Amino acid sequence: MKVLIANREETTRLMPMDTCIDIMENTLKLLDQGDAVLPLRQMLALPDGKNILALMPAYLGGIGSVGVKVITIFPGNHGTEYESHQGAVLLFDTEHGRLEAIVDGTAVTAIRTAAVSGAATRYLARPDASDLAIIGSGTQAGTHLEAMLTVREIRRIRIFSRSAARADAFAATAEKKFGRTVEVTKTAKAAVEGADIICTTTAAHTPVVMGDWISPGAHINAVGAYQPHSRELDTAAVAGARLYVDRLESALQEAGEFIIPRNEGVIDTNHIIGELGALLSGRIPGRQSPRDITLFKSLGIAVEDLAAARLILDQALKKKIGTFVDFGGRESAA
Known about the structure:
This protein is an alpha/beta fold. The protein is built from eleven helices and 16 strands. The strands form two sheets. Strands 1, 2, 3, 4, 5, 6, 7 and 16 form an eight-stranded mixed sheet that branches. An eight-stranded parallel sheet has the order 10-9-8-11-12-15-13-14. Helix 2 packs across helix 3, helix 3 packs parallel to helix 4 and helix 3 crosses helix 11. The two termini are 18 Å apart.
């Protein structure tokens, strides 16, 4: 039985951002329609208290696939030669349970996370949104820039990072890759004030964006924090926004941006308008006014990884890219 092994470079080539945004939209609609099984991910905390092994299983009927992403999350890798998220996505079919593909989890996470933010921005940001602020300078900052350029006509780009050197390097890379000028700001406030679209892509545990910095009409994608005790936005930022999530069950258990203000008594569960898939399906309303502040809190869910792996496999077969190896599956002859 032939199994695709797709490394990082191949995975990236086979997942163009514009296509991935469309795939993520369809995937979240399938989830909203109930054509998925999506348990909460298991998070194994290492004894050091800092690092995590995450297991993310899922079933997605619309593409006839079941699988799991296994990934490590080492926030201390920021600024080193190693990614903070490393692992693999294993894709199986639902007819015989055949392993079909093993794809690079680092690339999948980087691209599909930004693609989902792209879908949220497409539906929630004002049509004329053109001033982009990015907080953070790592992998997600780069893929989010690409996603935002895909869904909106961006005229101004500002970035803030705790590391001025990394911010400068990000700006130089963006100019080379996209032909766009990126302004490096000295503070997060200077990046955020006046922005129409704000993407927070940091490993911060405490807020890096405050509510009183955010202009009326802005849209925010908050993707960096993934545990109940960590957040990138302060309480005022969340309380003042129309809040959408990728998965309600996950947000109630894991999203510090929601959990901390709720525990403070400032908001309750009704503050969450609903899941992004329900918005894409037209079941819940989106922006109601040009002055609304909208917020998409992303935690990342395994159906997105399955859909990405299926796209990679289909493209690899079509374009004859990737390595196919014999890897079990068939019953041995007696």
